[in-house]
Q: What sequence folds into this?
């Protein structure tokens, strides 16, 4: 369990949530002096963006239809408390400060009551810090990725998350423009992605694209048939000024516990993938289902009281069902997930292996 914090780092570094694919924000329409553009023009605006430095404040809130998480007490085991804290990061409301200076210098600070959680990437160094527990995790990125924009825990800003949706645009998606919006006191285009299939839980994704820089400022996902957001994250304050270099330097505070972690190289040479389950993918586009083979979910996971509270027993296993994402864990330890109803995961679990 000692590597769980680093493994779950994406949940620590930015207001994001389930499967890195459900970010939502209500976008308020208003008057704008933006030039008239087509959806294709706005897509090109994002692709051509050359703004490398920016900072701002990010807000997250979610209404995924999941049960409330139990509060951890002093009698809770460290593993129970860790799992609850990680889920709280993914599912609860948060405010974060974000500083970016190119692809390899990123600092995200999640603000808690009288505490903070920081993730910092400065070149090849990645630091994760929890002030409440005085815990620090450090890792050195492999040389091949130290000077690249390869995604890591500290690059999951709202802009990077929006790019995931834009990269996935294909013929299964209708791309349109809504009315111009104001986000963080900036005029933005409202790029709307709508699945053409009703086999997904996602109703639509709206991305507020800054009219000057082309940077996605806010992303909104509505569940199918819903009128209010299921999850939201985006900038409430935004600046293109270059952040001070000191914001990317980190020295562990006195008295903090520091743990070192090794990360695999891009070719897997440092840590061969032997023993790591290889996922299979069925379906396509918005109805894609990713499955891990039997034995991927250990008994300790399925027997965890916290997991039991968040899931419900169904035919062929236990299911976590939110308004945007579903997960099914079968008795033989298979794990299936997708932005689809639980029934679709059950059908995939029942299908003969190919």
A:
């Amino acid at each position: 369990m000692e590597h769980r914090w680093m493994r779950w780092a994406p949940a620590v570094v930015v207001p994001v949530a389930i499967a890195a694919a459900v970010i939502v924000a209500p976008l308020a329409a208003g008057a704008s002096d933006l030039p008239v553009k087509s959806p294709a023009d706005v897509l090109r605006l994002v692709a051509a963006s050359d703004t490398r430095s920016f900072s701002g404040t990010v807000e997250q809130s979610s209404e995924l239809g999941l049960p409330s998480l139990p509060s951890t007490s002093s009698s809770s085991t460290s593993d129970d408390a860790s799992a609850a804290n990680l889920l709280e990061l993914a599912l609860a409301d948060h405010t974060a400060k974000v500083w970016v200076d190119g692809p390899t210098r990123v600092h995200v600070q999640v603000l808690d009551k009288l505490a903070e959680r920081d993730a910092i990437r400065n070149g090849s160094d990645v630091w994760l810090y929890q002030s409440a527990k005085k815990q620090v995790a450090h890792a050195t990125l492999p040389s091949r990725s130290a000077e690249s924009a390869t995604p890591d825990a500290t690059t999951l800003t709202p802009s990077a998350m929006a790019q995931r949706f834009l990269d996935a645009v294909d013929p299964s998606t209708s791309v349109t423009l809504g009315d111009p919006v104001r986000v963080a006191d900036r005029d933005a285009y409202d790029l709307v992605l709508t699945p053409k299939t009703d086999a997904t839980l996602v109703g639509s994704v709206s991305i507020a694209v800054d009219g000057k820089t082309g940077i996605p400022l806010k992303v909104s996902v509505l569940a199918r048939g819903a009128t209010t957001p299921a999850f939201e994250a985006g900038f409430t304050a935004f600046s293109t000024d270059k952040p001070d270099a000191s914001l990317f330097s980190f020295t562990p505070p006195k008295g903090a516990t520091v743990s070192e972690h090794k990360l695999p190289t891009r070719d897997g040479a440092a840590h061969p993938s032997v023993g790591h389950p290889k996922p299979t993918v069925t379906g396509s586009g918005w109805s894609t289902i990713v499955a891990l083979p039997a034995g991927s979910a250990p008994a300790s996971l399925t027997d965890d009281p916290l997991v039991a509270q968040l899931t419900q027993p169904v035919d062929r296993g236990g299911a976590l069902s939110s308004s945007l994402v579903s997960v099914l864990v079968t008795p033989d330890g298979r794990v299936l997930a997708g932005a689809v109803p639980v029934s679709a995961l059950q059908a995939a679990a029942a299908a003969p292996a190919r």
In short: The two ends are 33 Å apart (CA to CA).
